[in-house]
Amino acid sequence: SIAVPVSAAIRGRLLSFHRAPAGPGDLDCLTYCEDGLLLVGADGRILEVGDWDDLRGRVPDGVAVDDHSGKLVLPGFIDTHIHFPQTQVIASYGAQLLDWLEKYTFIEEQRFADPAHAAANASFFMDELLRNGTTTAVVYGSVHPQSVDALFAEAEARGAGLIAGKVMMDRHAPAALTDTADSSYRDGKDLIGRWHGTGRQRYAVTPRFAITSTEAQLEAAGALLREHPGVHMQTHLSENTDEIAEVGRLFPGARDYTDVYDRFGLLGPTSLFGHCIHLSDAEMARLSESSSVAVFCPTSNLFIGSGLFDLDALSKPERPVRTAIATDVGGGTSYSMLRTAAEAYKVLQLRRQNLPALAALHWMTRGNAEALGMAGEIGSLEPGRWADLVVLDPAATPAMRHRMKAVDGDLEEELFIQVTLGDDRSVAATYLRGRNSHLRQTGA
Ligand code: GUN
Ligand code: ZN
């Protein structure tokens, strides 16, 4: 048989989900090898996953085993909503959404007209994702197409796959930060031609939100989506009550905020809607019917004071809305998907809802992959998937090490500690396509 040669071998406690957990204690949803070995082919995809004892003989001479024994090896985390030009907006004081945009974000994003600034920030951005164990992200660029060129070039050079797009905004922002319906259509088409399907990169048509796009521009976004099947769409929806009121004033003919996007053909299975906090039942029904995805951004929703995501309402069995979870840096306050899940737990606590550890880890790996329609490529440790991995240290900090001493081999309890206390310090290593892309300095 024609076999792809083994080019990397990674040993550790392999953990991967094959479906969503039904609730706490549902360990059948995952595959776990206490002493496992993952073999990677020369193409960067997973060849085989199994017990060390069964697979050790398959490691060719000349391939060194990366030994992470005692540490957890999971599929790399997937961040489904993050803003590339906001790495110097994160942690900006004292404002809610519309003021925060005007006072901080719309100032900072203007700097991304400069390709050198964009390139330097793309390098930082990819470093920071990988340091946090995030191997795939869905990213908003700035309004400038060159910001997206810089980002895709950096990701591709590192072997990472991003889904990204140029922000479309043709009103209610500084002149230096606006495009037009026509220019955004042309720039979008150019970027799709240049990047969608180039290496691992994929495009997302990205109208910022209803307030900053005219009807003509939303029409252009719909046209880009129709003309390029397979591209994603991302925007913001129902984040803040002042925002919702303003959308009502700007689109008096629309039934509700969701309907503004619906009228332009922007709902669908490849459409990601950030926040979705204050939706009516009718809006949730429409998102469900169109197979659209609601993206939960807990650290952002708390930091900008936007509100509490209602997972139970969105998940009603008679009209379930697909969901994903994300950082939303720079409204969000952490690049870490672990930290993000810990804050998601607290948001849901305030709603008297739950987020078991298994659900959280499933969500940031396979769940987000499914939300992107990419579960065949990423999000699980299965043959054929990209060998994008995160290695987690169960005793990364003194507090974690101390707490772990009270755990007697209970995997689910260990995972809850990891989700609650873990962050970039837990990420011992990150792999892209089987190649080590980040190795945490011990003692750092
Ligand atoms: N709504 C429109 N633009 C943005 C943004 O950059 N961040 C957040 N959190 N919400 C938005
Ligand atoms: Zn956002």
From TrEMBL:
Its EC number is 3.5.4.3. The gene is guaD. Transmembrane segments: none annotated. It is an enzyme of class 3 (hydrolase). Pathway: Purine metabolism; guanine degradation; xanthine from guanine: step 1/1. This is Guanine deaminase. GO terms for biological process: guanine catabolic process. It comes from Azospirillum palustre. Keywords: Hydrolase, Metal-binding, Zinc. Coiled coil: none annotated.
